[in-house]
Design goal:
By secondary structure, the protein is mainly beta. The protein is built from one helix and eight strands, in the order αββββββββ. A hairpin with a 4-residue loop joins strand 3 and strand 4.
Length: 137
């Protein structure tokens, strides 16, 4: 019984550690400023890796599910164990119609210094959103 308990505790500790080592990308807000739609992201890099490139392929859907726009954005530089805010202008996007944002792909993911990017950067990312917007992959 002790061995089973030990194995369960090791598995649980490993799973908890793996969950903490993610890059959390939060779609924080989509708002019009000076007649331009701005998209705000809060990024928590909880990994030991820093990134010189972290490019997202995003698709913006209206509230009825029709694609409105698509963008390639770079969240880099991302420092290890650091939270950062990123704001991107989307001049052709009507902010009031956005209902859902899709992380279609991570097109570039480059570690800096002695750290290397994970083999599958997409798997290292967790998504969340604020308000009524959905942020999915």
């Amino acid at each position: 019984m002790k061995y089973v308990l030990a194995i369960v505790l090791l598995f649980w500790a490993g799973a908890a550690s793996a969950q903490e080592k993610t890059i959390n990308i939060e779609l924080n807000n989509v708002a019009a400023r000076s007649n331009v739609c701005q998209v705000y992201f809060r990024v928590q890099n909880q990994t030991d890796a820093a990134y010189s490139a972290f490019k997202l392929d995003l698709a913006f859907f209206d509230k009825s599910g029709v694609i409105n726009d698509r963008a390639l954005i770079d969240l880099a530089p991302l420092r290890a164990h650091k939270t950062s805010i990123h704001v991107f202008d989307m001049p052709d996007l009507d902010c009031g119609t956005v209902g859902e944002v899709l992380l279609n792909d991570i097109t570039e993911c480059v570690g800096t210094g002695e750290t290397t990017a994970p083999g599958d950067c997409f798997a290292a990312v967790s998504l969340s959103s604020r308000g009524k917007l959905s942020f999915i992959h």
